[in-house]
């Protein structure tokens, strides 16, 4: 969870949202806010009352790894998923293949470096859950073939 929060902070994701997206998030998660501003229109926040239920829901989902993460490499966003069982990955890829021409590559995690990945056609990286403690960590790389 900390890695996801650090990623959001370090990549200034708030600044990438549109005004409407920011308004939606504020309305959903904040019940009340007290602000002050001076004659130069500098704003300071005095107090925020968060929507407790929404915050508890999002905290639970983060702790449970319900969210994928977007990783930006070589100026391209790639979906980095949570650990998934091989059979679930196969089912997911089969579903995608109904709509797209998908190339699936499985690589050993110890030989994987995301910074060296040719990201032109990579859409998603899915870490595979190990079926035994002796199995090496693997990633499934999904690419759209043109």
Mind explaining what this structure looks like?
- Strand 1 (30-37) and strand 2 (43-50) form a beta hairpin.
- The chain is built from five helices and seven strands.
- Helices cover 33% and strands 32% of the residues.
- The longest helix is centred in the middle third of the chain and has 12 residues, at 52-63.
- The protein has two domains: 2-63, no CATH class; 69-144, no CATH class.
- By secondary structure, the chain is of the alpha+beta class.
Low-confidence stretches: none
Largest sheet, in brief, is: 5 strands, mixed
Strand content: 25-35%
The radius of gyration is 20 Å
Structural class label: alpha+beta
Listing every helix as H and every strand as E from the N terminus to the C terminus, the arrangement reads HHHEEHEEHEEE
How far apart are the termini? 35 Å
Q: How many strands in all? A: 7
Amount of helix: 25-40%
């Amino acid at each position: 969870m900390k890695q996801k929060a650090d990623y959001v902070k370090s990549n200034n994701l708030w600044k990438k949202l549109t005004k409407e997206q920011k308004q939606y998030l504020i309305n959903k998660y904040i019940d009340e806010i007290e602000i002050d501003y001076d004659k130069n229109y500098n704003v300071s926040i005095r107090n925020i009352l968060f929507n407790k239920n929404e915050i508890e829901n999002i905290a639970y989902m983060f702790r449970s790894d319900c969210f994928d993460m977007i990783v930006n490499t070589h100026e391209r966003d790639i979906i980095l998923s949570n650990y998934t069982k091989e059979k679930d990955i196969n089912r997911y890829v089969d579903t995608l293949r109904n709509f797209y021409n998908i190339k699936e590559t499985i690589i050993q995690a110890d030989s994987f470096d995301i910074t060296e990945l040719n990201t032109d056609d990579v859409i998603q990286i899915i870490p595979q859950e190990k079926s035994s403690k002796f199995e090496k960590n693997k990633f499934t790389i999904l690419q759209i073939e043109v």
